[in-house]
Amino acid sequence: MEKLKLGGKEFDNRLIIGTGKYSSGQQLAEACKASGAQIATMAVKRVDAERHSDEIVKPLKEMGVEFMPNTSGAKNAKEAVFAARLAREALGTDWIKVEIHPDVRYLLPDPVETLEACETLVKEGFKVFPYIQADPVLARRLEEIGCAAVMPLGAPIGSARGLETIAMLKIIIAHAGVPVVVDAGIGSPSDACKALELGADAVMVNTAIAASGDPVGMAGAFKLAQQAGREAFEAGLAGRTETARPTSPMEAFLKEAMK
Amino acid sequence: MKIVFNGKERQVREGQTLEGLCEELGIKPEGAAAACSGEVVPKGQWKDFALKDGMEIDVFSLVAGG
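^ Those are the sequences you sent over. The predicted structure of the assembly is below.
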């Protein structure tokens, strides 16, 4: 399997895992290890001085995981830029996943605010990874302004509905000059495998692992899926036809083959 | 004097610094970021960053998320 090149770095695995919804920091760390993921996302929030949450940064850092903080919770470009600056200060990374989804029902990303935030952040030296609708035109615009990758959705966040946007994902993948990470909606290892078979560079998964019956076991299944999907893409799929293509000799056996 | 800390009013002593406040609240600088009126205050400045009456201070940290 070829290495994933993202944000100027190389990785041996094509999963990016989200850190939400795990029952503990320990479970997250075990799932991360089982998945083989070398990149993880996390959010920035105001400190709750009364309630200390489980430490997530330290165990992942010890495993050498690359951090991709996100701007989740930002309702517009201004808030996203602020969140990105805070994340850089907190983690010392210039990676930022731009997520601006003011609509709480579907958490669909706002393309206008996203483009504006990305322009500002690229100028400030960030490696910008925008979460977007599977819109090939927007993907192109984001690439042109200098984003490090694009992260189109397969279906709404946490919905586990798979690659509902597959037709548009194919167009994005076919034309992108930056890595394409299919983000959101991936509900099963087969969805991840499919995205990578299509030629996506990586997939981002959170709920499908964290909310499964056995997150560590499911993380292992995703590890296999990402490898299968990517290796299938590199090998080159045989392609589809409308009619049969014989796999056995068609010459006469006892008498002339049926015509 | 009073400041607004993470959206809530909070009494702090005269001459208190951002670093002192974070120490008092058990907030470690590692993995945290602070802002004053929406502008990031780099960690290197926390020590000498004197809080003033009415200041809006927000301190953030990383939390689980996708």
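Strands of chain B lie at 2-5, 8-11, 32-36, 39-41, 56-64. Residues 3 and 10 of chain B are 5 Å apart (CA to CA).

Shout if you want it in another format.
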